[in-house]
């Protein structure tokens, strides 16, 4: 090897080394920053994971050799973050009761119940307030509505004082021996000051003053008392609310305090999914329609796409590129937007379709159960055929011309050539895409939700399930209720069940398509 | 070649590490919101979620607040419709805002999730319209500072019908006599009707949604929909539907366009459509909603306001900002001028009466009741609307459909 080549090669390798070190340094800097934040927040598990990942990344890229790991590491990391973490987290949520009214920790719930149970005694007077500080503890200097001045703190009930300094409005603003807190001082100690409760006397029944804003104090009463030892709330009438084991405090009558908190509920969500009447009732018809919708969507779009692909594949046709471009346009629009546009077109009295195409006929496209099903399929055909057109065009162009020629020479007619040669070869490459298209349409939430919202609803059923609801929209309605509030736990459980259905169908289908590959 | 490869690989690695970091940080705070680091910066910045319309006005008052009180206000502009759910999701992580703008009918959901803190308005409570304070209350606690009230009324094309009719039947007669394409317009939805817009007519039959307790709030456990008045209303709905007076295919947008085109003398709508009607050159008057069932046709009053997060570490600053700044007459008036919604503060509301439209809507709203803010309302809207569609389109006996709806709502309210 000539000396000059060697020098150039080592120069380039030096440069690549430098770039590698800089980029690795950036990653490490980010990781150290992350670990610093995590350390401050005492999130030890995430801290440990970040540390381990950083060390592994450095080891992979700094050691000589081990080329496969260097290629795989970024991909694996993405896989872990975007796929595995999400799936595992959904799985975890499926075993909790996370949802509306159950969206925090128990400690937060207790704090919140205490906060909302405190209220100003109705029609009680306003005490003008100056917060004072003495030896690191806070006191209230209040001017009552009659102009009398009182001072006190949580340990010493309010007593009248006469030597306070009064401002022009008659409000006491300072007292000998105490430091007057400015607004900025208040801001720096907001939690401490808003949690102060200064009693009128040693008897708690006389009430206590609290301040929400640092400049006014009011008599507050608490509707609920928390007892930490027994972990119960007691209200004014003596009713006791206990941790009922379902993520909320309940009394003997079954009344819950809000909010509750998130707990693990085991397989409860899966049991609900199968035993809930709202689901079970319409489940069979919805499941049949879901399969029908997915299969018909794939079939109609594939047939139209294939037909157009064959037509536009004719050699020597003029303006092919322009036509193809126009064909692909529906594919370029966001599906939910198209759904809304079609919703307007289908309007019974004002829509373009009835007004212009059908000359003013009042065809109930979206409100008749069967027409609504047809409408959904028509819109999905419009949205979906460009995809099929694209993949069929690609697949057709990859089939060697010689095969057609050879068949023609053997005396085959065009239809026979297509049916016996082109189509089977086409299926080899297209079949897996048809299966994924089925999986996509099985969960095609956008089109259903935007066009019909699952409706028209069967008004006598009592369950909010409509004629065009597929499983995923039914799940959405049940779990995120326009109904009973959002229930992420139940939604995750359903997502897992739907995943199992789709995965099963896909695996069986892929097995079948293996037979096709033997053609090659 | 080798350079490019390792460059790509390391770049991808950096990106994934950053993403992982983001995910981890979110996780960490979910796990333990109470131990977020106490930094001086955090205690002197108030984070407020507002929608784009309100942001402009609040910028001025935020600057004023910072100059007076030394607390920076960070305004985060969000889509109004997304604020409620985002807030419910984010507040428990400790990363949510201190203050949000919102509608009063969110309150039930916010309280149910424990994300909103009570707000003591002190002696200023009496300065607001009663309906606004009632709307901002839930189970006896006041939670928000109201800034606007709005309600619907009957908008009349004065060129087509000169006098305001006294009853809904007279309105229909006058509308038919005017010889226009529609006797009366109201925006509905083919799947969900619009119980909000039809409520005044229902109320005139003496059928509110829930029973109203002595203190003026709703009792969410006792439905009043199913009383005799409700069934009479259902019968009427079917009648109006068969006569074509109500048409579920006329959406809000279509109704507005047709009214502006002069195709109907009456349009049941709110202040939000007035600018378009003015632009369309229609001579209009805003009338009380005529009664259909004999009693007052009281509309729902919607109240917008500001709420403080229960996880806020800045409650004193937030309370000060809301009560003494947002609650001031200047800000209430400025918010009214930008949004066109009548102010909730009485003094600002009276000043706004100079505008005839505001005064007219306000007079109708004085007869109104706050839209229920209980969490169960989500259930009610959905069943209520789809049953109205079925009744209007004659898909069964109106009274039976109404009874089935009441039974279904009652079941869900009891369960939920």
UniProtKB/TrEMBL annotation, chain A:
It comes from the Bacteria. Pfam families: BPD_transp_1, TM_PBP2_N. It is a multi-pass membrane protein. GO terms for molecular function: ABC-type maltose transporter activity. The keyword Cell membrane applies. GO terms for biological process: maltodextrin transmembrane transport. The chain crosses the membrane at residues 21-38, 44-62, 74-95, 288-310, 322-344, 350-367, 374-396, 416-440, 491-510. Residues 287-509 form the ABC transmembrane type-1 domain. GO terms for cellular component: maltose transport complex. It is found in: Cell membrane. Belongs to the binding-protein-dependent transport system permease family. MalFG subfamily. Part of the ABC transporter complex MalEFGK involved in maltose/maltodextrin import. Probably responsible for the translocation of the substrate across the membrane. This is Maltose/maltodextrin transport system permease protein. It comes from Microcella putealis. The lineage of its organism: Bacteria, Bacillati, Actinomycetota, Actinomycetes, Micrococcales.
Automatic annotation (TrEMBL), chain B:
The keyword DNA repair does not apply. GO terms for biological process: maltodextrin transmembrane transport; maltose transport. Transmembrane segments: none annotated. One of its GO terms (molecular function) is carbohydrate transmembrane transporter activity. Pfam families: SBP_bac_8 (PF13416). Keywords: Signal, Sugar transport, Transport. GO terms for cellular component: ATP-binding cassette (ABC) transporter complex, substrate-binding subunit-containing. CDD domains: PBP2_Maltose_binding_like (cd13586). The keyword Membrane does not apply. Coiled coil: none annotated. Residues 1-30 form the signal peptide. Belongs to the bacterial solute-binding protein 1 family. This is Carbohydrate ABC transporter substrate-binding protein (CUT1 family).
């Amino acid at each position: 090897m000539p000396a000059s080549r060697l020098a150039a090669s080592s120069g380039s390798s030096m440069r690549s080394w430098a770039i590698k070190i800089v980029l690795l340094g950036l990653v490490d800097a980010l990781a150290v920053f992350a670990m610093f934040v995590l350390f401050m927040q005492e999130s030890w598990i995430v801290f440990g994971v970040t540390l381990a990942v950083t060390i592994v990344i450095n080891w992979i890229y700094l050691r000589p050799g081990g080329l496969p790991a260097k290629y795989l590491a970024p991909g694996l990391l993405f896989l872990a973050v975007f796929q595995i973490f999400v799936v595992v987290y959904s799985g975890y949520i499926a075993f909790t009761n996370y949802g509306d009214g159950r969206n925090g920790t128990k400690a937060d719930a207790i704090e919140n119940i205490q906060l909302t149970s405190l209220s100003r005694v109705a029609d009680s007077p306003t005490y003008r307030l100056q917060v004072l500080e003495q030896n690191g503890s806070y006191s209230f200097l209040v001017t009552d509505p009659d102009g009398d001045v009182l001072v006190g703190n949580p340990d010493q009930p309010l007593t009248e004082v006469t030597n306070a300094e009064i401002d022009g409005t008659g409000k006491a603003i300072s007292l000998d021996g105490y430091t007057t807190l400015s607004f900025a001082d208040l801001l720096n100690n907001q939690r401490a000051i808003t949690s102060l409760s200064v009693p009128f006397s040693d008897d708690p029944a006389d009430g206590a003053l609290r301040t929400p804003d640092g400049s006014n104090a009011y008599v507050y009463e608490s509707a609920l008392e928390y007892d930490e030892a027994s972990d119960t709330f007691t209200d004014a009438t003596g009713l006791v609310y206990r941790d009922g084991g379902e993520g909320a405090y309940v009394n003997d009558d079954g009344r819950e305090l809000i909010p509750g908190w998130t707990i693990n509920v085991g397989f409860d969500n899966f049991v609900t999914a199968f035993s809930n009447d709202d689901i079970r009732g319409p489940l069979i018809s919805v499941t049949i329609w879901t399969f029908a919708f997915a299969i018909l969507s794939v079939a109609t779009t594939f047939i139209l796409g294939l037909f157009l692909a064959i037509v536009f594949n004719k050699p020597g046709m003029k303006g092919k590129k322009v036509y193809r471009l126009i064909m692909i346009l529906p594919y370029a629009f966001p599906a939910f937007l198209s759904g809304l546009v079609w919703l307007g077109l289908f309007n019974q009295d004002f829509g373009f379709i009835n007004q212009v195409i059908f000359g003013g006929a009042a065809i109930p496209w979206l409100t008749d159960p069967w027409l609504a099903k047809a409408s959904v399929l028509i819109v999905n055909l419009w949205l979906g055929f460009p995809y099929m057109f694209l993949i069929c065009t690609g697949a057709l162009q990859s089939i060697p011309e010689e095969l057609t020629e050879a068949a023609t020479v053997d005396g085959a007619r065009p239809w026979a050539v297509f049916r016996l040669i082109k189509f089977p070869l086409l299926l080899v490459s297209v079949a897996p895409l048809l299966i994924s298209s089925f999986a996509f349409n099985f969960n095609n939430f956008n089109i259903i939700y935007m066009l019909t919202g699952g409706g028209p609803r069967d008004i006598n059923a009592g369950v909010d399930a409509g004629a065009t609801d597929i499983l995923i929209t039914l799940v959405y309605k049940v779990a995120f209720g326009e109904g009973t509030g959002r229930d992420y736990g139940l939604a995750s459980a359903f997502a897992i069940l739907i995943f199992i259905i789709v995965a099963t169908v896909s695996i069986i289908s892929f097995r079948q398509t293996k037979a096709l590959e033997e053609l090659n | 070649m080798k350079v490019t490869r390792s460059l790509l690989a390391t770049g991808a690695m950096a990106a994934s590490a950053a993403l992982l970091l983001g995910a981890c940080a979110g996780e960490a705070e979910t796990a333990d919101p109470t131990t977020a680091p106490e930094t001086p910066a955090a205690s002197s910045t108030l984070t407020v979620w507002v929608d784009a319309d309100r942001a402009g006005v609040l910028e001025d008052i935020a600057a004023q607040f910072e100059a007076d009180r030394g607390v920076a206000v960070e305004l985060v502009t969000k889509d109004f419709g997304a604020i409620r759910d985002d807030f419910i999701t984010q507040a428990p992580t400790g990363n949510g805002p201190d203050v949000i703008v919102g509608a009063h009918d969110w309150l039930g959901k916010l309280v149910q999730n424990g994300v909103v803190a009570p707000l003591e308005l002190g002696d200023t409570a009496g300065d607001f319209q009663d309906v606004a304070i009632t709307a901002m209350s839930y189970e006896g606690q006041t939670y928000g500072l109201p800034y606007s009230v709005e309600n619907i009324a009957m908008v009349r094309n004065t060129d087509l019908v000169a006098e305001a009719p006294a009853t809904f039947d007279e309105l229909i007669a006058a509308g038919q006599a005017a010889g226009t394409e529609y006797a009366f317009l109201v925006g509905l939805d083919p799947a969900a009707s619009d119980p909000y817009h039809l409520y005044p007519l229902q109320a005139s039959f003496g059928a509110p949604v829930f029973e109203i307790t002595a203190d003026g709030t709703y009792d969410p456990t006792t439905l009043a929909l199913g009383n005799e008045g409700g069934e009479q209303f259902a019968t009427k709905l079917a009648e109006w539907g068969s006569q074509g007076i109500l048409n579920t295919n006329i959406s809000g947008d279509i109704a507005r366009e047709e009214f502006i085109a002069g195709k109907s003398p009456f349009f049941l709508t709110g202040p939000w459509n007035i600018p378009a009607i003015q632009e369309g050159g229609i001579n209009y008057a805003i009338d009380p909603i005529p009664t259909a069932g004999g009693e007052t046709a009281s509309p729902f009053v919607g109240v917008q306001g500001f709420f403080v997060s229960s996880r806020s570490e800045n409650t004193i600053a937030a309370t000060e900002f809301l009560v003494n700044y947002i609650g001031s007459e200047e800000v209430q008036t400025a918010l009214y001028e930008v949004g066109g919604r009548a102010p909730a503060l009485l003094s600002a509301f009276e000043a706004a009466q100079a505008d005839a439209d505001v005064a007219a809507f306000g007079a109708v709203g004085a007869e109104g009741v706050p839209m229920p803010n209980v969490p169960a309302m989500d259930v009610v809207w959905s069943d209520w609307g789809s049953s109205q569609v079925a009744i209007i389109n004659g898909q069964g006996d109106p009274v039976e459909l109404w009874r089935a709806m009441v039974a279904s709502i009652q079941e869900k309210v009891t369960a939920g």
